[in-house]
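Cross-posted from the bioinformatics board.
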Amino acid sequence: GDSVTQMEGPVTLSEEAFLTINCTYTATGYPSLFWYVQYPGEGLQLLLKATKADDKGSNKGFEATYRKETTSFHLEKGSVQVSDSAVYFCALSYQGGSEKLVFGKGTKLTVNP
Amino acid sequence: EPEVTQTPSHQVTQMGQEVILRCVPISNHLYFYWYRQILGQKVEFLVSFYNNEISEKSEIFDDQFSVERPDGSNFTLKIRSTKLEDSAMYFCASIHGLAGGWGEQFFGPGTRLTVL
């Protein structure tokens, strides 16, 4: 079946450091890929998405590129801020049907000033 | 800004008891979901609901679970006889549901269920 694997956390960085959170997937078809973020005490929020191979999703300085050849969707940000501290979830979904999300385990990021 | 709300934020119950988790999806949304996350594990899909019926359910969603949209606003998840392994964070989500999809799923803040 379909699955998503994320790098194990937690990740601790200093402010302005470069961030990479690795995400790889196993899929039977051609899914869309997502990054969701969960800030403390809140629900999951869509951060960015990509719907087909080579698409790049971007939002709030975060980027991820849909790499079909490596089945990856790594999240990157050039300079993290304290306010980026949150849990990040990689996920996939298929168009049509119920469009349920298949999530990775989540990676907790802490950014220190 | 419209948001998905969930109540209660934390529910503690005894094993074998029935619990009802409540969600109010965004008002013009058509598809509704429940997910759960056992501590330290993945967020897992439980069930999707559209047009007053289940559109898909996972293996986790056995006969102990049921969902209902009793009125125009609430979407509930009932667990008939809770087990220790039902302890988890339960997330409700909704999507507008335009044909062809790709609409964003909006999530509630979750209900933490603790079964003793």
